[in-house]
Amino acid sequence: MARASIPLLAALFVFSYHIHLYPAISLTPPSSSSAFLHGGGAIRPAMVLPLYLSPPNISRSVANSRRHLQRSGPNSHPNARMRLYDDLLLNGYYTTRLWIGTPPQRFALIVDTGSTVTYVPCSTCEQCGRHQDPKFQPELSSTYQPVKCNIDCSCDQDRVQCVYERQYAEMSSSSGALGEDILSFGNESELAPQRAVFGCENVETGDLYSQHADGIMGLGRGDLSVVDQLVEKGVISDSFSLCYGGMDIGGGTMVLGGISPPTDMAFANSDSLRSPYYNIDLKKILVAGKPLPLNPKIFDGKHGTVLDSGTTYAYLPEAAFVAFKEAIMKELHPLHQIRGPDPNYNDICFSGGSSDVSKLSDTFPAVEMAFGNGQKLLLSPENYLFRHSKVRGAYCLGIFQNGKDPTTLLGGIIVRNTLVMYDREHSKIGFWKTNCSELWERLHVTGASPPVPSSSNGNNSTIESPPTEPPNHVLPGGVQIGQITFQMSLSINISDLKPHVPELSEFIAQELDVNTSQVHLLNVMSKGNNSIVSWAILPSDSVSYISNATATSIYSQLSEHRVQLPHTYGNYQLLQWKIEPPADRTWWQQHYVVVLAVTITVIVALLVSGTWFIRRKRQQPVNSYKPVNVAVPEQELQPL
């Protein structure tokens, strides 16, 4: 490990969380105050990044050649291509999958450019919450080594091992030991597994305890950052890229290493000496083509304009926010302003917009950010709006005032459906508008899987090797699916599970976006301390088979661990998956609808005929009874 120029291990993180907000996790030196300024109760919490010292040569020049989107050049470094999961506004973060150890153990880690350390829960942690995956078990990894106490780290009480501790603004925390092991980036990466230092948590509190994700993947500038460690080893160029999905579309792509930028990518200078965070030289903002009446220096206050992947929304200095709000409202005068979804915040929301994201530009104005070099980043409405959760066709501003702090903080909402290239080697950040859900196919190159550390231990349910082939969630076209059966393992005792199986069925239906009536429990059995549950997903009542798209969606959600169950059910693992064609039906099953229709028609016809006959009989005159001696008038005979 490279020698640290400052004592990072005792550094203080600053963290704040809101229902739609997972802000940056950022370092400060131990002696500095964690100044995290907030506005009044009428606005959402301000996101201000604290400062820590940065080495002058923090950006290392490793390679001059860069990758192409389709294939690498002969002298270029390999890179790690990794998928992103979850959604910044719905889940509060984006995660990626990282494998640690030999054999590899999988973890879902929040990608955060404001953090400089990667950590996961350790098996020895007695104060860690239940997360998406089992805890890391260093005793089962043949390649794990603790980082021994040295002058560059904080040590445990026995001065045997390096430790870390992270404290957060709302009193949540993470602490543990530093270890070194092999990190694997999945089979869709060209980069071979690499040794790196990471944190093995022993204590979690607050939001870190309750979050669904396992831990943090630090992408910031610092010696413990995954990016810095890989660059220091010379295995990737000094660059990485992120591409977040758009509104209503989660997931995305991350690339550790360089790629060749598109010709129309807009760049902004990023000065690592200006602040330790990824900053850009923003000079002005334009709304509907008109620049806001602001001094360009307003975007250079304190830490300047910081780009952070772990922050949900965007936060402007007071004067800039007021000017932006007034310009937007001036363009939206035909719309009706309404209250926000959360009464605790004075969100600025409007009703009357289209529910179709692609048509928002017809109603909401375009916004541009102009950089010091004259290049501009065009923001679509999805880059500064979020959906109103209670009113259909209503949207709210996702840009807020940063309290009284002059820092400009640009969170993930600004770069939705935008490829962001952090070119640290050349001190610039690039932006390219694209459909991030399709970018993966452009970046993916079919080839051999990267080597995976060989397993020297027996099988264990908490250990999983990266797949040997790229996951293929597309089923053959034309296949009719009668039902989907799958088996899942839950880390909960069967006696604790059985009383809650009905609720679990409802959660499964909700997460897979099917009706509760379609989810059928097949079997529940015990396996050690775990429970094995078998399910069947049947077609809805209105159709006879499950569509290919629905089946693909169900499988991808299960296999990629995007099904989020309450913590009371523990962690789950997909064991088996099977699709079955519609069962062969008898003559009666095939034609019962027609027979039933004919039968109903006959019954109705008989009822109508009977009713008509009865009414006709009642209308005929009935001769009344008369005594014998009563004279009866003669009736005239009708001629033949």
UniProtKB/TrEMBL annotation:
GO biological processes: proteolysis
CDD domains per UniProt: pepsin_A_like_plant (cd05476)
Keyword set, alphabetical order: Aspartyl protease, Glycoprotein, Hydrolase, Membrane, Protease, Signal, Transmembrane, Transmembrane helix
Gene3D superfamilies, A to Z: Acid Proteases
Annotated segments matching region Disordered: 447-475
Domain (Peptidase A1): residue spans on this chain: 94-432
Pfam families in alphabetical order: ALE2_N (PF23180), TAXi_C (PF14541), TAXi_N (PF14543)
Record field: transmembrane: 592-614
Protein name as annotated: Peptidase A1 domain-containing protein
